[in-house]
Amino acid sequence: MHSEHNSEHGAASEHGVAAEHSAASEHSAAAGDDVALGNKEPSGSGKASSVVAPWVRTRLRAAPLAALALALLVALTACLAAAFPRAVDRYEDAGLRRSLQQARPESTSVQITSPQIAGAPSPEELAAPLLPGALRERYEKLFDTVPEALAPDRAQSAYGVTLSKNPEVPDPWIPRPSGVPARVALVAQHGLADHATVREGRLPRTSGTVGTTTPVVEAAVTAATAKSLHIKVGSVIHVPAVGRAPLAVRVTGIVTPREAAGAYWSTRPLLRTPSLVALPTGGPDRSWYWLGALLLAPEAAPALLGTDGDPLLYWSLAPDPHRLHASDLDRLKSAVATLESGPGLQEARALTGPGTSVTTGLDGVLISFSQLRAGTAPLVAVAAIGTATVAAVVLLLAGALAADRRRAEAALLRARGASLTGLAGRLCAETAAVAVPAGALGLAAALLVVPEGRTSYAVAAALAVTVIACTALPVRAALAHRSVRVAGPREDMVTTRPSRRRTVAELTLLVLAAAAVESLRRRGTSSSSADGPSGDQLVSVAPVLVGVIAALVLVRLLPFLLRRLASPAGRLRGAVGFLSLARAGRTSVSAVLPLLALLTALTTAAFGGSVLAGVNEARDRVALLAVGADARVESEGPLPSDLADRVRDVSGVRAVTEASIGYQAKPHDEQTPVPLAGVDPTEYGALAARTGLGAFDADRLKRPSADGPLPALASPSVAKAYGTRRPFPVRLEDGSTVSVRITVVRNRTPAVTGDGFLVVDRAGLSAAAARTTALLVTGHHVDAGALNRTAGPTAGVRVRAQERARYADPPLQTGAEHVYTAAVAAGAGYAVLALLLALLRAAPERAALLARLRTMGLTRAQARRLLVLESLPQALLAAAGGALTGWAAIRLLSPGVDLTAVALPSAGTSVGRTELYTDPLALTVPAIIVLVTAVGVAGVQAWWAGRRGSVRELRAGDAR
């Protein structure tokens, strides 16, 4: 009775405070906008009135900790939401730059070439277009016609004049490897002084006017050209001319490129590096000749008119990799198409001549990168949508819990005449005063942490978070107080029946989830064209929808399970079990939001963990297939006899298997060779079993008799070609012949990679053929450096760990993997936060309940069991349901998910399809974390409540 009296007194006190706030706020509204903002004197009043505290300031001062918690939640969420699109842009831009670097400038630069048109009335007018001024004028105009998305780099772009064919030079002192005279490319390219350092001599220059009859011009060569063609400062090279003596080109300087890998030198690699060119004749005795470049002064270009070749004007526009963005990929493709065969080509011809052509390999680079990005984007979208859903649920949960905490206050305000719009507006202003600055702070932090990327997407993401945070509380309060009533009915989970609207919404989500899953199974994430994903966003939402549907189904099942368990628990001797189930059943229906967050996060975490595990497994598998063991030492000739013993002493080595591999073995003396490996059957069988590459029974490979054929392990293709019933001869590389009969067929084997191989007992081979050429090493953490030093310079060493690292290096795949991991971790953190919010919201009520029960004889141990058992149904259901839903989502979606683009970007299609598979750790670890968190919070709460006195806790609890 005493506690009931205290409870009623506390409720009356709360209603009184709410009434005072209501009266103050309504008075403020009636006084006008100026008073609501905190002014002391209302508009239109001739005398001062009493100061009325504004609503927002009053409510924030009344609950500062709640306001601070909301600010931290909004700031963190806004920061993560704003950083995500910029992080995606950053790794995609890095991937695009890597693709451009691998393609090299000769493929990525846009090369515009125009032949010199003959028919000018005088030699001066014929030479005028070749002069630097005319070339630069057209160069500047061409720059203006290039689409902005292409972002040409003026520092690395170039223009000049060369010849359409490279003439032979008769000078005998230039090397002739096959007796064929060397050829030279005469190039007059601008900017040589800005891109080269003079090593010897000086740069070329001209004196007077250069024309078709000029006998001598100056040139420079690079150090590599000078070394290969034996050119020195002062050397003279004679270029054949038409109707006159040969043009003498005197070398005045040897230069070194400042940025040899830059587009200025690499768009035409011949400018910096000479090459040996083979004459277009077949046969093994091909003839070769040297081809080098002579760098003329730009003013000497008219001298090319007198040579045995047609001058060719060119302009090379090099895109700046640091200004190209993956988000502009469609615009880049359109810009390249415009220049190659669209309006851009017509503009270029109008400026340079009708015979102008535009060529570039940039379109191929962009298409290749687009295909790689299309393989990673859907998987990243799955994690992003899952994490965004969980974060949105947590924000909605925070608003719902705040509305539930202030239910009596809002009900009283409505009863005293507050409009629904006015109540929602005041709550929105109160929340916005906290959420808007916090969202801006989170956005600023994201821009500082991730400086690259599109700002508009980051602002939109942070704005969406802020809007959700601002509207969650007022919308929830408006829905709960549509009708005016002082006290609402109980909404216990067990007794409340779902509305028809909720049933329709759940059925709609069920249909969408089924459609998304079926779409993903049919099309898959790898069925994307070069222009982007062919499927819609419904495919990326499929795992999230599966989790949402599972959460709604479990929410429907939870009341039924609680009712079924409450009856047996009531017949037990102790009251703790029944009381805990009764308390769990009296939970407000708003508890569906924590369960929704938990199920969605657990499903996304299970799916994401399986994706990462699948990626790691695929990389490990391909690295193992490439090496055959943890490490491999191989040589073209026989290895030293003591090398195997020395390798066994290397740190990390556990076992060494010797093999003699001949790659030119020919069955039936056919021309097509088949690799044949001679091994010790026992050791090799153990190796195959350890690696999982074609395990077999060693006895089936041992030779039964000295006169019989050698038993052989073969690939399916070799077994199909030569049969498994009859022996057949195989001629080895040393000229000996052995008779083999295929007794074991396996798809893979450690010693030999590829689809065709034979493996036999090396005891049946000749002494020369049985010499060890390869060592297959197994062990944990093999020391690659020590293994290389032991093997020596003549043997090649491949380590599985290094081979695996090669697939994890590209920035596009690595960035997608890191973003995916971060998104999954953030989703798991938000799920735990949702659980904590739900448990902490009920903490005051539980503390008061424990205090009342303590006065009735409840022990501290019973109090701990009560809180733990009360929190277990929802946590246990979420953990079990999350693990089951994650497993179901993986099983349903794995046929439509291809991880090859993420796991093995450089392996291509030769490794086949990399599918998703179930990872037990990804299923169990998040579920265990949920259970431990729920039990831990309940235990800490029971411990804390036990430290406080029952009378004090009753007063504090009733006052609430």
Derived from helix and strand composition plus strand pairing, the structural class reads: alpha+beta
**Mean pLDDT over the residues:** 80
Calculate the terminal CA-CA distance, rounded to whole Å: 18 Å
From the alpha carbons, calculate the radius of gyration and give it in angstroms.
39 Å
Helix proportion: 40-55%
Q: Judging from the principal axes of the Cα atoms, what is the shape?
A: flat
Which residues form runs of ≥5 with pLDDT under 50?
1-53, 526-536, 956-960
The count of domains is: 4
- Give the strand tally: 20
Discrete helix count: 31
Residue fraction in strands: 5-15%
Main beta sheet: strand number and arrangement? 11 strands, mixed
Task: Describe this entry's structure for a reader.
This protein is an alpha+beta fold. The protein folds into four domains: 2-53, no CATH class; 68-87 and 370-613 and 810-959, no CATH class; 110-359, no CATH class; 636-794, no CATH class. Helices cover 54% and strands 13% of the residues. A hairpin with a 6-residue loop joins β13 and β14 (674-679). It is flat and about 120 Å long. The chain starts with a helix and ends with a helix. Mean pLDDT is 80; it is low at 1-53, 526-536 and 956-960.
